[in-house]
Amino acid sequence: MIHPTAVIHPGARLGEGCSVGPYAVIEEHVTLGAGCVVGPHVHLTGHTVVGARNRFHAGAVIGDAPQDVKYAGQPTRLVIGDDNLFREHVTIHRSNRLDEDTVIGHGNLFMAGSHVGHNCRLGNHNVLANGALLAGHVTLDDRAFISGHCLVHQFCRIGRLAMMQGGSKITKDLPPFTLARDLNRLCGLNIVGLRRAGLTAAQRLQLKQAYRLVFRSNESFQARLAAAKAEFAGAGVVQEFLEFIAGSKRGVCADVGRLHGGKTAEEGAGE
C-alpha cells in the first residue's frame, strides 16, 4: 500500500488501509485517518490532522505554512474531516495562529489548482472548481459552489447553497442561496442548486419574494430588512437568509438589477 519511493517520517501516523503513491512526502506531524489515498508527488506537511477516506491527487500540497508575513513558524494546525477529494495541485494552508485552526469539513471537492488560505473554515459538501482561490480567514458554509477562477477576499463569508459564476470576485459577504457574478454583484437566487438540495417550490417562492424585497425595493436597507423579517417571520430558509445579511460585518453583495433610489444593501449593511 506504500510505494517504495514515498518518504514518510517515522513520526507520521497512518490509519488502517491507507495508500501512498510514488514520491509522496508525509512529514512528522501528519495524521491520516483510515482509508486515505495519497497520490504521486503529494506533500502532506505541518501539524495536519486528516480524517478518513480522503483522496489526494498528484501534486497536492496540504498543510504548508500560511502565506502571511506575520507568521513566525508556530506549530499551527490544519484539521480536515472525512471523504474530501483534493485534485491535482490543490493547496491548503494551515493557520497563522495557535488559537485558531484552518478547518475543512466533510465531503468537499477541491478541483485542480484551487487554493484555501490560512484560517479558512469550510463546512460540508462544498465545491471549489479549477483555479478557485479563497484568501485567508474566509468562511464557507455548506453546499456552496465556487466556480472556476473565482476570487474570494480575506474575511469574506459565503452562505449555504450560494454559488459564484466563473471568474467572479467578491470582497463582501455572499448571502445563502444567492448567485454571484462579476465584482460583488448578485443576479438572483441559485435556483438550480436549491432544487437539487430539495427545497420545495413554496420555500423557493418565499426566498424569491424576500430577495426582491431586500435587494430590489427603494426603501433604506434597514427598512427593507425589517419589512422582510416581519413578512417572513417563522419561514426557516428565509430567516437564515435574512439573519446572514443582518449579521454581516463587511456588507453584502448588491443586486445587478437594483432599482434607482435608496441605499443598496452593499452600502447599508454596515450601518
What does this entry look like structurally?
It is a single chain. With about 270 residues, the chain is α/β, with parallel strands linked by helices. The chain is built from 5 helices and 28 strands. It has an 11-stranded mixed sheet with strand order 3-6-9-12-15-18-21-24-26-27-28. A 9-stranded parallel sheet has the order 1-4-7-10-13-16-19-22-25, with no helix packed on it. Strands 2-5-8-11-14-17-20-23 form an 8-stranded parallel sheet, with no helix packed on it. The termini are far apart.
Uncertain segments are 259-271
CATH architecture of the largest domain: 3 Solenoid
CATH overall fold name of the largest domain: UDP N-Acetylglucosamine Acyltransferase, domain 1
Largest sheet: 11 strands, mixed
Total domains: 2
